[in-house]
Amino acid sequence: MLRKTHVFAALFAVMLSAVPAGAAMTTGTFVARANTLRTQGFAALLSPDFQVLKEEARLARQELKAESEARVKAGKRPIACVPDGETIGIEDMLDELARLPAADQRKPLKDGYARVLSRRFPC
Predict the structure, then answer these.
(1) pTM, to two decimals
(2) CB atoms within 10 A of CB 117
(3) What is the sign, positive or negative, of the torsion defined by CA atoms of 13, 41, 93, 74?
(4) What's the CA gap between 106 and 108, in Å, rounded?
(5) Residue 48 in contact with residue 12, Cβ under 8 Å?
(6) Is 122:77 a contact under the CB 8 Å cutoff?
(7) What is the DSSP secondary structure assignment for residue 25, as one 8-state letter?
(8) pLDDT by residue for the chain (123 residues), tens digit each?
(9) DSSP for 57-70?
(10) Half-sphere exposure of 93 (CA within 13 A, CB side)
């Protein structure tokens, strides 16, 4: 008989394998999974999906920052001109990502972030 922990571990492994290693999660997938967690309130913090999404968001921000710095170094405009001290809260970011057109929903999360930031903080 399978124990609950074994079933949970198996489900977690399947969930992690849904996105191939090194493949960026799409904006639409990120929003859908994040919205599922949003409905769980504080219990979402205990969900294994929380850490997966947190890491996806961190990687997307890191890639976006590197891309923006490379653009500036090449003499091009940055992706967005965020004033010092300005931020977008996670709830606002999720809402803005959800409003992006279907074509943008199919792009990597980094591109969704770029679209939201360039709209909110144009150069």
Answers:
(1) 0.75
(2) 20
(3) negative
(4) 7
(5) yes
(6) no
(7) P
(8) 444 333 333 333 333 334 444 568 999 999 999 999 999 988 888 899 999 999 999 999 999 999 999 999 999 999 999 999 998 898 999 999 999 999 999 999 999 999 999 999 999
(9) HHHHHHHHHHHHHH
(10) 18
At residue 2, φ and ψ (nearest 5 deg) are: -75, 135
Residue with tokens 């590197």: 66
Q: Among 90, 113, 106, which Cα is nearest to 25's? A: 106
In the numeric block, the tokens 């150069």 are attached to: 123
Which residues, including other chains, have CB under 8 Å from residue 29's CB and lie 6 or more apart? 19
| Residues in a beta bridge with 108 | 26
CA pair distance 17, 108, nearest whole angstrom: 17
